[in-house]
Protein 1
Amino acid sequence: MLNNTRIGLIGGGNMAEALIKGLLAGGVAAAGLVVAEPVAERRSFLGEHYGVNCTDDNTSLVAGSDVIIMAIKPQVAGTVLQGIGAVATAGKLFISIMAGVKSATIEAAFPGEVRVVRVMPNTPALVLEASSAIAPGAFATSEDIALTRSILELVGKAWIVEEKLMDAVTGLSGSGPAYVLTFIEALSDAGVKNGLPRDTALGLAAQTVFGTAKLLLETREHPAVLRDKVTSPGGTTIAGLHALEQAGFRGTLINAVDAATARSRELGQK
């Protein structure tokens, strides 16, 4: 599906790098990829490390690409969209990773019925284990959705959602790695507090999270069912769970997702 498709990425940050790695691993030729990045050092790194073409000219990238992945911060969306409007034709597909920026906002910046698909991957894309959501814009076709999904599945797993749910996706999986990393760090700290060496505690904590997630995904059982299997009457696990409940662990995590979701909505209104 990606053969002979010219792909351009506006923005050369971590997420763009992850997508480049996935595309190359999926058989896309480096010669078919172009990255527009304003920082010269970053252009040099991407060009030397991955063999992709790099430029500082967004307009030429859009003009020469069939698919344009917008991997930029939402705060610069207006400036970038205005700069490429003249070459954004209906024959091109725009895939946006910009948090909070609605497809309608991108469509309105261009003449004609430009095809837009909005996506939200997360940083585990760097190790090809992303959780991504896909939402089609008003003029996107089923072929556009399939092509977008084929790109995202090179760096992990992808789900199709309604665009009105993308802020919730941002709050949950987009920001989620930060919550999980904080949990791992705290779990490791607890191990150190109770006498474990730091490297051992961190390794145990990280592997516990990784293994538990894999167990959940492979068994497809409800988290409560799997939790019950390790919670013996009067045992250590129920004592620990009681402490989590007393501290409002679940409510705090829900509040974190709520706050991140709300911030995503705010970014989309600017």
Protein 2
Amino acid sequence: MDQFDPYMAIMLRERATNPNVIIGGGDSVHPGPTGHTIMAWAILKGLGASALVSQAEIDSATKNVTAAEACQIQNLKFADGIISFDRLDDALPMPIEPPAEPALGLAPILNDLNRYELQITGLAAGAYELSIDGESAGKATAEELGRGWNIATEASPITKQAQEVLKLVVQKNNLFFNRWRDVQLYSFPEWAQTPEAESRRAAELARLDQQIAGNEAQIDNIRKPKSHHFELKPQAH
């Protein structure tokens, strides 16, 4: 996968307006969280990763679910101007760590890789507020909802769960890096190559492997999507 040319194209585009701009880290070499996210976007797109996480479409005029792709919609209700339902997705939206959020303004990452959509047609004109499990999850107009609202990065219990998965993945990666760099890769000097030293090294590798396996089990458990209760109501003036 070619991640260099898309990255360079973005950098040159940004430098056309600001010659001193640096994307990512503290210099032109180290990409940092923003650069890493752009690189991941280029690689995943090149590998053919799906753009859609899931999509729910509801027709408020007929009061029916008209489409549910990669998710299940249950308990749809219309009462006192509020539309409510329960949504269970097949997968979580892709988490974006806060230091990497500038990448979203540099490349079409959300559109290409992270479309977690809510579409509600037939609404009366105006602004609406969405809550998920009782927590505010953003506001949108009837027009935006009619086109399809991507809520992949809106603060909600769903994105919090995705961020927890990301946190555990980073912890596991750091453990594996420590195992490889500090224990496995390290070459003992000849004078230290004793049976005792080798056995201590093997024991440390086994200890880290156990920690890594524990992290993998946590990731496997927390990554599973849960059913969430959605409510959409007209925004109070």
